[in-house]
Amino acid sequence: MSRGFLTSRPGHVWREWPAEAMTPERFTVGPGDAGERLDRVAARHLNLSRSVVQRLIREGLLQVDGIEATPAYKVRGGERVEVEVPENGLVPEEIPVPVVFEDEYLIVVNKPAGLVVHPGAGNPSGTLVNALLNHGIAGGGDPLRPGVVHRLDRDTSGLMVLVKGEPAYSRMVSSLSSRKVDRGYRAAVVGTGLPRTGTIDSPVGRDPENPTLMAAGVGKTAVTHFEVLSETDDHTLLRVRLETGRTHQIRVHLSAIGHPVYADPLYGQAVPGRRLWLHAESLGFVHPVSGERLELVSEIPADLSETARSLGFSDEPERRTSPA
After folding, report:
1. Which of the two ends of the chain, N or C, has the fewest CB atoms closer than 10 A to its terminal CB?
2. At which of 73, 89, 105 does a domain end?
3. Distances (CA, A) of 320 to 237, 253, 261, 298, 316
């Protein structure tokens, strides 16, 4: 049976975290750990998630007897593991993100397109979470997602709320699960002929034929409402309201009815030089602590407005001043 690999790369120092934010840790592999995967053993000894440990291993920050290893390496009793651990698992980064509202309990931002919400596979840093750590975001059981109560896709721009610990975290999660948060989007889709208003009520879950994608007709309950705002010969501009919040829900639902979001590389067709035409333009909810009703809006970004004009839409349809 393979034990994985140890690799010696003298002078290899490649970091996603600054050195001053690291804390050295070390432990010796005990007899009871022998034969287990390195990432499992290290996660247990260091009290970190396996995903964080795997990032540390990939970035050369964890060594076994002075040599780098792979996550699947099978450890031996008596081996000494040394690792540089980022304090709190995450490091703040200077990433410009417009703040729409902020108080001591939560923050609402206008997420730029191209920004991933939280660290994960392939995105160990440079995320919205890294950008907002200095704002005090906190809450939830995943150390890589502090304060995250809902998400937007990487290429979707617009409004997101994050919280700063309890009681805001639990109350916002409850509001979302009970469908008390109004989330409005603007979407340009391919094709015409949709009814003036409509509702797509179809479960959304992992595509059984391609688990990296989502699909309609499987998984959990998902409900999306839409309203036609304008049409050209080949495209339609919609206002969309989420009743539920499944991964890729709007994109999957609109694709399932034959009108994928324009320039959607996953559920429609990529367009060179264009990004997904989807923007979270409105957000309405009761403040989890003060009880104040918040109604927030975000203007359509310049790149999407330019694309809309190129598709034949003239002036942007009149905006509502509160979420749909």
Report:
1. N
2. 89
3. 15, 23, 21, 11, 12
- The pLDDT of residue 8 is 38
Q: Which long-range contacts (CB under 8 A, 24 or more apart) does 263-272 make?
A: 263/307, 266/213, 267/213, 268/190, 269/190
Query: What is residue 315's DSSP assignment?
Result: S
239-292 pLDDT, tens per residue? 999 999 999 999 999 999 999 999 999 999 999 999 999 999 999 999 999 999
Q: What is the pTM of this model?
A: 0.73
C-alpha 164: how far from chain center = 17
153 is catalytic: yes
198 and 104 within one domain: no
Catalytic: which of 33, 39, 153, 264? 153
CA pair distance 117, 150, nearest whole angstrom: 9
Residue 182 token pair: 């109004």
Q: Is the pLDDT of residue 320 over 70?
A: no
Q: Considering Cα of 177, then 183, then 188, then 191, what sign does the dihedral take?
A: positive
CA distance 94 to 131: 6
The dihedrals phi and psi of 304, each to the nearest 5 degrees, come to -70, -40
The Cα–Cα gap between 61 and 100 comes to 37
Report the 3 state secondary structure along 56-89.
HHHCCCEEECCEEECCCCECCCCCEEEEEEEHHH
Last residue of a domain, one of 157, 178, 199: 178
